[in-house]
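Entry:
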Amino acid sequence: MKIAIAQLNPVIGDISGNAKLILDAAQKAKKLDAKLMITPELSLIGYPPRDLLIYPSLIEAAVLELENLAKYLPSEIAVLVGTVTFNYQAANTGEKSLFNSAVLLTNGEIKQVFHKQLLPTYDVFDEDRYFEPGKTRDFFTLENYSNSSENLAKVGVTICEDLWNDEAFWGKRNYAYDPMKELAAQKVDFVINMSASPYQTGKQKLREAMLKHSTNCYQIPIIYVNQVGGNDDLIFDGCSVVFNGAGNVVYRAQAFETSLAVVEFNSAKKDFISVDFKSINLPESEDEEIWSALVLGLRDYVQKCGFSKVVLGLSGGIDSALVAAIATAALGKENVFAILMPSPYSSEHSVKDALELAENLGIAKQIISIENLMKDYDNSLSSLFTGTNFGIAEENIQSRIRGNLLMAISNKFGYLLLSTGNKSEMAVGYCTLYGDMNGGLAVISDVPKTRVYSLCQWLNEQTVNNNKKFSGSQNLLMTEKQNIIPKNILTKAPSAELKEGQKDEDSLPAYEVLDDILFRLVEKCESLDKIIAAGHDLEVVNKVVKLVMRAEFKRRQAPPGLKISTRAFGTGWRMPIAKKLVIN
């Protein structure tokens, strides 16, 4: 029996458009002789729908669209669709009114409905806010379209988190029961997991280790089907994968791309025996992973929000250089507009480096000097600032001038403004409200400064070696001798050029030190004592912690940023602004 894996990129709330994606995939799967097609979690409505779920009209529309979809699907194939369904017992029981469901469509009708049992409420997940957990661990039986009753496949159905509670693998149990264990007790032939699992660096290796453990433990094959695409701050990497009963990967889908593939289940052997499509290797490095994630996240955010072009400020620094390269890879050079805004504090090489980068990328550029505007601000504020020392207020004026100019261009031409600040800066507040923080999307706000350098170096290696296989390479100018990122940008000391001779390390620890402290504090939630025990200076650690906590009001006003880490500022970071906090 051939089973199709539809790795789809739905648009949240676009129920008719998502139904068409499913229908198109099913028609292709039919031509491949598949008898069952599996879609990701909530594929009909898109994940995560968040508070769209509180509007009953949207759920009613999804129910009607599901019924229509059942009628139009090829009769030769059964399809598992991820969607939202009503809990019709809610009014009498006080339960939540919705289920996160998988619905089996076959022969023009809804044959069976399965509900997600484990509802995550950590990190970016808030499913208990909307859904009632399913109470049964269930399966369906799918005929292998032959005359032998022995060729019936008994298929267990799980949805995302349902497979993430193996006590032996994690060393703890987060929920009262393990759906996989209970399906194994029902002697299912294989288990399907329909997922919308967001990307973070290295996550696929963790997923596969967990799935391999389950297949080894129960000798039950698993088909894991994951959503792909960017939805707001979340990026979904796909990487759908099939494990046979021996715990070996039979098939893996391409990361960060939509796909449709077929695997074959042998009912006699109770296992997956062959594939019609080549299994894809995982990205070779974390830099390749992160680059691909950011390219996909930016492209989908721009397109799903109805934009076609972007604008950004190009300073000659490494952060804006990386964002410009990502934007070019995602959208094409004709859709990226760079603005250079030199001030009296801008060094000659900053302008030269920015121009060289724009030339390397082939993007449009414009120089707008802000020197006269800065003088106008100084004159307007001179009487009020008389008798005070030059300081942060004056330093930030140039950033706010640039922010206003960029927003004016964005408004005038309908371009999406990209913010270029990195995670290190966002963490400690080394950024200016209504200045360099302006924008509709903060592309690298979850990328630490040290990783920014690593990504730029990796990109140069790809282009110098003429590697045309990495994500977005077709949109970048490729020559055997050219670095995309000018070498001077990689080697000069980082500086916001707020005043003459200013450098970042005048205000901050070295980025290698800062990023390690931030990783331990933000992502690992370590205590001060533990961070200091790792070799960091007490005074430096205390300074960094204070900066992080004081900068919360800035981050609350920042544009959404693409999440690539285990804990990003944004959806998964819910820190109060007004607080007194001592981390012991």
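The longest helix spans residues 392-413.
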